[in-house]
Design brief:
disordered N terminus; Sulfite Reductase Hemoprotein, domain 1; NO2/SO3_Rdtase_4Fe4S_sf; five-stranded mixed β-sheet; heme binding; Alpha-Beta Plaits; alpha+beta; 433 residues; dissimilatory sulfite reductase (NADH) activity
Length: 433
């Protein structure tokens, strides 16, 4: 708080403060503790929500003592919305009445997480008026998490946040809040317009977020390159990952400067030997050669030698379907169903949006209750999904192409001929472009 803030003169004193001996232990050690933050809100926060934070700490310590959680769900929403609010009602409200309701609002962040300090201050002011003052930027869901308000405060807070231009995110069996990296706003590795792709798809499918009607959650994420700064490959049902299909660009003079700075051994150990497909060679004259046909665009060499190496010029996206965490059949990484798609023109973005709509529609029609699309594909088989999406099988869809020792050779000649014909058509289209 700023010097002279009247709240400094009205800090919560020891009188009436719940003892929290078990929580106090979490403040020991070298790392920051969430308990310290909660105590600060209790002692120095806005006067209208200090009692709530005091009872929240009391209930949390009580949970640690009993080794039980004392929150239950319910139904709380804002007018016109079926999701976006996580209701929490206390089962020990008689002991901790000020925190008997502690609901959370999930609010969609701007694409690419772009904020002004003025907007951030206004959001904090709104939550101090109508909530606990506890905000998380951002939860694992990608949302701004406004944590802690009563049922009446939910609508009031939403109305003011909506006036700022923000909308509720997803919760429940619905389209969830999407995430996109900062991308080409400041990153030289970006291979497409992540922010535009994010806004285009979410604005098109917004009803699926605010009016839950899917079998279970469905999440989009947009990463500008294979560094995947928003964990799309592992955590998104529909991951859009930036990539390129021509050669990595090499500045041989910068390569020599890098080697002169860090040494040949360091370069061999951290770049050449770390390439997963052994596609990089270092010549005696300190120049690099890359076998681009073997390159899997993992970004490692580019990350180490950012001045010397960069993505190619023919950039676009790969689309992976089915990434998820835990539950049912365990963790899944996305399946590369579209190895490359250009994403530059209005027509390209329309094509992406149409494909996204088709995937969500397929999920809604074919998934079982509480089943993610990756689990649906695992249950019905990838060929059935590809047939429904009218996508031709591609070697890039093989899960472990370099380690599989089982190969079916029946109809090989016919399938190989189809493959070469398709590649010839694609090459002709690229030349025409």
């Amino acid at each position: 708080m700023k010097d002279g803030d009247p709240r400094d003169d009205n800090k919560t004193t020891g009188e009436g403060v719940h003892p929290t001996p078990l929580l106090d232990e979490l403040e020991d050690g070298p790392w920051p503790s969430f308990v310290t933050g909660l105590k600060r809100l209790r002692d120095e926060g806005a006067p209208n929500n200090r009692k709530m934070m005091n009872d929240l700490l009391g209930q949390l310590n009580h949970s640690y003592e009993k080794r039980l959680g004392f929150w239950k769900g319910g139904t709380v929403s804002v007018y016109g919305y079926g999701g976006g609010v996580i209701p929490r009602f206390s089962e020990v409200a008689d002991k901790f009445p000020e925190s008997k309701e502690f609901h959370t609002l999930r609010v969609m962040p701007p694409a690419g997480y772009h904020y002004t300090t003025d907007v951030l201050r206004k959001m904090c002011d709104i939550w101090e008026r109508h909530g606990s003052g506890l905000i998380a930027f951002h939860g694992q869901s990608g949302d701004i998490m406004f944590q802690g308000t009563d049922t009446e405060g939910v609508q009031k807070a939403f109305d003011e946040l909506n006036e700022l231009g923000f909308d509720l995110g997803g919760a429940g069996p619905a389209l969830r809040t999407a995430m996109s990296c900062v991308g080409h706003a400041r990153c030289e590795q970006s291979c497409y317009d992540e922010v535009r792709a994010h806004r285009t798809i979410i604005n098109t499918l917004l009803d699926e977020m605010h009016r839950p009607s899917l079998p279970y959650k469905f999440k989009f994420k947009f990463s500008g390159c294979a560094n995947d700064c928003v964990n799309a490959i592992h955590r998104a049902d529909f991951a859009v990952i930036g990539t390129w299909r021509d050669d990595i660009k090499i500045d041989q003079e910068k390569v020599k400067e890098h080697i002169a700075t860090v040494g040949r051994k360091y370069t061999i150990d951290t770049v050449v030997n770390m390439c997963p497909t052994r596609a990089i060679s270092l010549h005696d004259d300190d120049t690099l050669e890359i076998d681009n046909k073997s390159c899997v665009r993992c970004m490692h060499c580019i990350n180490v030698m950012t001045k010397a190496l960069s993505p190619g010029d023919d950039r676009g996206v790969s689309i992976l379907i089915g990434g998820k965490r835990a539950l049912k059949i365990g963790d899944l990484m996305g399946i590369n169903v579209i190895p490359f798609m250009k994403l530059e023109t209005d027509e390209d973005f329309e094509k992406l949006t149409e494909f996204a709509e088709n995937v969500v529609e397929f999920f809604a029609d074919n998934a079982l209750e509480h089943e993610r699309i990756g689990e649906t594909i695992d249950r019905i088989g990838l060929p059935a999904f590809l047939e429904a999406m009218e996508i031709d099988p591609d070697p890039n869809m093989v899960n472990h192409p370099r380690t599989s020792c089982f190969v079916r050779t029946d109809d090989f000649d016919e399938e190989a001929a189809k493959w070469f014909e398709r590649k010839a058509r694609e090459a002709g289209l690229r030349v025409a472009e």
